[in-house]
Write a structure and sequence with these properties.
The protein is 35% helix and 16% strand. It is of the alpha/beta class.
Amino acid sequence: MADAVLIVRLGALGDLVHALPAVAALRAAWPAATIDWLVDGRYAALLELVPIIDRTVVVGGASGVPAVQAIRELRRRRYDLAIDFQGLLKSAIYARLAGARQCAGFMPSQLREPMAGLFYTARVPGDDSGHVVRKNLSLVEALGARGQTVACPLKVSASTVPGEVRRRLQIGGAEPYAVINPGAGWPNKQWPAERYGALAAHLRERHGLRSAVVWGPGEQALAEQAAAASNGAAAVAPATSIADLVELARGAAIFVAGDTGPMQLAAAAGTPVAAVFGPTYPLRHGPWNPGDTWVSRFDDCECHHKRRCRREIPCIRTITVQQAADAVDRRLARGDARG
């Protein structure tokens, strides 16, 4: 057992979510330990919702401190164990410079930047057979923290957004709704906004669900396009914080999106998910609830894990509205069996 543990996972949003079950396993196995997390300032808001973390050390961004100051702060805390879930040279250097007695990460062959392994004192062969959540869990299990369940604890927050969404959708407080997230971090993950709108029309016609279209920085126009193509079945949601998005997802009958941080956040909140995948592998990066559904073009894709497609028409754009609607129908037929 370690008395003081540092988690290093700087970003991005979905990757932080994928590390949460491993950190929950650490907390369950070592309830008296101090667990801190080093995070990029752009994603620190997520960790404010995580009750099992004692402290966050925020580096960079509008809310963070410079790297040198962060390292000084970490070294003062005298960690027994630093765990790098990111596998980059940058994250490995942070983990090692924190001064912990042991610095752990995956084997070099399993790292995005294999040279990062030079900075670890313990190199663990992670379980690469399935979802990245399982891989992260295998790292902490090898360090002595075996979890019994896959948990993703997130605090409940006060938010006015669900009420405002219901007002915009003109539905009552007990009526279910859907959430659609048409944005994507990469062009290669972008399913056309108008198809999300057609999917919203399907949700209303087939399931009686009106849809809130959520958006992040630079995505409001996409949300407006999706709502405009919905034949009145969807409305654009107000701007949301991470906490707002969690609460909106908690109240949703289904969350529909591509491989994005908001989709991973909805999965962590226990919301039923239906997703569309292009260059990434859903069995590794998709929602981990076995009841969730997706449509994937990964097997046909020539640009795995690339931001831009080499083809004239990206693989994800060959997914039809009907195929996505079938995934939505299958997920809703399975009911709200969350967890």
